[in-house]
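QA checklist item 7 of 12: single-chain prediction sanity check.
[x] sequence parsed
[x] length recorded as 323
[x] structure emitted
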Amino acid sequence: MTRRPTSFNLDEVRFEPEELYPETDGDMADAVAVIPRPRGRVWLGVFFAAVALLILFAIGVGIDNLIRALFDRSDILGWVTAVIAAVATLALIVIIAREVVGLMRLRRIHVIHARAVEAATADDRDRALVVVREIDALYRRRPETARGRSYLASHRNEIIDGRDLIGLAETNLLLPFDESARRMVLGSAKRVALVTAISPRALVDLLFVGAEILRLIRRLAMLYGGRPGAVGFFRLTRETISHLALTGGIAAGDSLIQQIIGHGVAARLSARLGEGVINGLLTARVGIAAIEVCRPLPFINGSPPRIADVMAALRPLSKEKDE
């Protein structure tokens, strides 16, 4: 049916923009778009898992054929090869078990850290008590923590707020570890600065800095109770680099330059020594990020090492070089 044309007065028409574009509710306005996970990664993981299984089967069939061939040639050679294969299998099982235990321990530390952050943020005493029990169990086999755990147990049932209880656990259990971690970071920064300053080749600098950073991450993980295996260490290193990137540590060039200029080093150092100081500071920055990743509790009463402390420790190196 065709509508007949009509006339109307524009002055009588009231146009409200909200009718066409209504305001959304607060919940809709605060909604965050969720990025779907790419499905290709799942199939990529399945592919690598299948390839790894095929390789393991191929190795197993090859060892079986080798043992059978040696038995046909000589019983002694066959039994010796069978014993060697059994020892290798046992060692592989132990290695896998240690990797699993290391991964579970790292996950346990991360869970304790996340629960401690939640308890401190909400100032929840009940959650804090759970965290205190978990960290007490984590360090139960560390004799150097016996005194702190005893003091913490004697004050656990007192009326203490959740955040203060987490801070009490940090003070009595982790602050001694923090001091050792600070010395580790400073020591690695000094070694990197010295080797970079006297090394004749850039390749040597790169290899030494990389090895020192990996060594520092492993030592910090062992200090705080991580004890990672090979897979766990790779995962921990990846998390440290990710944390460093998220906190802006990689793009901290301006702050590093300010530290150097603020101490009057840039005007006095040679190019090689200046490069050594920069590499030492970057190594320290990675160490600070590793401390924050490996530490089972957030910083409440304590504080991580600062770049200014590392720079103060590197200043004597520049003076010795100038002399």
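[x] summary fact logged: The chain is about 75% helix and 0% strand.
[ ] second reviewer sign-off
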